[in-house]
Amino acid sequence: QATVPGGDKDVNCILLMLVGGPSHLDTFDPKPNAPAEMRGPFKATPTKVPGTQITDIFPETAKHADKFSVIRT
Question: Which of 12, 21, 29, 59 is most buried as measured by Cβ atoms within 10 A of its Cβ?
């Protein structure tokens, strides 16, 4: 936990390092409009954030997408 400069609000950061885990195409970057040979095997589902989709295997995560940031690098 850290304190925001000039404020009293706490800021939290959770880093998910998925080394050896599912690929970005299977989780947070499903690429639903890509050709079948380029996208993952799962369908995309909309989140609470307009224009943002994640894989349909994370329906509860999609409901809380307005509370976290996905950094795609």
Answer: 29
Residue 30 and residue 23 in contact, taking contact as beta carbons nearer than 8 Å: no
The pTM is what?
0.65
**Closest Cα to residue 61, out of 38, 40, 30?**
30
Length of the chain: 73
The answer to whether 30 and 43 are in contact (CB under 8 A) is: yes
CA–CA dist 31, 21 (Å, integer): 18
- Residue 53: per-residue pLDDT: 92
Cα separation values, 12 from 9, 30, 50, Å: 10, 26, 23
